[in-house]
Design brief:
Helices cover 47% and strands 17% of the residues. It has 349 residues and is an alpha/beta fold. α7 (167-184) packs parallel to α11 and α10 crosses α13 (300-313). The structure holds nicotinamide-adenine-dinucleotide (NAD) and zinc ion.
Length: 349
């Protein structure tokens, strides 16, 4: 099944597809549009608005991970008011995962919901954040605490935008791509292995993004509101979130996912459900992509405490998603404390 059939909306992936946004708006039968963008990608947003026949208002916002706030949301609502957006107005959000989460949430809630089209410009947004209909902002009490499930009318991922994306930001997406490859199987994993050592500029991005969209779409489609199968996407993430928090977010999410995948592999190895050979392959790939496999010097107790906090926030039990083989994961695994501790210890030295 195609992502469109699975998700119920098209995901347009390709080189030079930015200009197709206007056509998708027309197809959705929407008469008016407003373009909202991350100021860093205003040039792409201008191309999107220029492709419309009439004039389309454009508003740029200074974003960044620390600006996914109520204050930013208020500024976006104000812009929607100023531009006289109403229920017939398509909100087009252009940018990375922060832009998608913020503009998507604003669109989902302004006047009880305006149609939203997500133009993903970062690798994280293309392979992960833009797919699945989750939107959110952070609250002082924590990340992504206020949000909504709201499907866009379409997602557009123009891989040409990746050319201006800093290498560190490309790397932010690689951990999730490795995670998707483990969920997908041998072929996807081998495909990534074959890219190691090749400059990003030469990677077949259209194919890679499309494959990652397909993997996430297949998981998400069976579990729109996150009660079951979607848990698979948490592979490596229980460890990753704890590492992020224990490092006071010095470790970025993408890097934490890399460490978290290694930790999940180590735990699965100790649990007896993953092979040494596959673990070695995983570590080799992480290293080949210049991703971290440890956060040296991080306090083990702080990581374990962060995990316990996570446990308290859920229903008192910590359940891990562990790899079993390439293409197979096990969900809901309750690990012995000693196994968790040992995996964390390995990833802090
Ligand atoms: N909703 C979901 O399901 C979901 C899933 C994963 C992540 N997220 C969220 O996504 C966010 C992370 O996304 P991100 O890594 O894209 O962060 P981001 O949106 O901050 O983008 C990273 C940086 O790259 C810049 N940028 C984006 N596209 C560019 C381009 N083409 N050229 C040059 N610069 C560009 C941005 O301005 C920013 O400085 C987090 O807030 C996370 O919570 C959401
Ligand atoms: Zn993630």
């Amino acid at each position: 099944m195609t992502p469109e059939t699975l998700l119920g909306y098209p995901v347009v992936v390709g080189a030079g597809v930015l200009e197709q946004v206007a056509a998708h708006a027309r197809r959705a039968g929407l008469e008016r549009a407003v373009v909202l963008c991350d100021a860093n990608v205003e040039a792409y947003a201008r191309r999107v608005s220029a492709a419309f026949a009439g004039s389309v208002p454009l508003r740029a916002f200074r974003l960044g991970e620390e600006r996914k706030t109520l204050e930013s949301l208020a500024a976006v609502y104000a812009a929607l008011g100023e531009t006289e957006a109403d229920r017939r107005t398509l909100v087009i959000g252009v940018g990375g995962g922060v832009a998608g989460d913020l503009f998507g949430f604003a669109a989902a809630t302004y006047m009880r919901g305006l149609p939203f089209l997500n133009v993903a410009t970062s690798l994280v947004a293309m392979v992960d954040a833009a797919i699945g209909g989750k939107t959110a902002i952070d609250l002082p009490a924590g990340k992504n605490l206020a949000g909504a499930f709201a499907d866009p009318v379409a997602v557009v991922a123009d891989v040409e935008a990746l050319r201006s994306l800093p290498e560190a930001q490309i790397r932010e997406g690689l951990g999730e791509m490795i995670k998707h490859a483990i969920l997908s199987g041998q072929a996807a994993f081998a495909r990534l292995e074959a890219l190691a050592g090749h400059a990003f500029a030469g990677w077949p991005w259209s194919d890679l993004v499309a494959e990652n969209v397909a993997v996430k779409a297949a998981v998400v489609a069976g579990d729109r509101l996150e009660g079951g199968d979607r848990e698979r996407l948490n592979l490596g993430h229980t460890f990753a979130h704890a590492f992020e928090r224990a490092s006071s977010y010095q470790l970025t999410h993408g890097n934490a996912v890399a460490v978290g995948l290694r930790a999940a592999g180590l735990a699965a190895l100790a649990h007896g459900t993953w092979s040494q050979r596959d673990q070695e392959r995983l570590v080799r790939l992480l290293l080949a992509f210049e991703l971290p496999i440890a956060h040296v010097g991080l306090d083990v107790e702080a990581v374990l405490a962060a995990m316990r906090m996570d446990k308290k926030r859920r229903d008192g039990r910590l359940r891990f998603v562990l790899p079993r083989a390439l293409g197979e994961v096990a969900c809901g695994i309750e690990l012995e404390d000693a196994i968790v501790r040992e995996a964390v210890e390995h990833c802090t030295r």
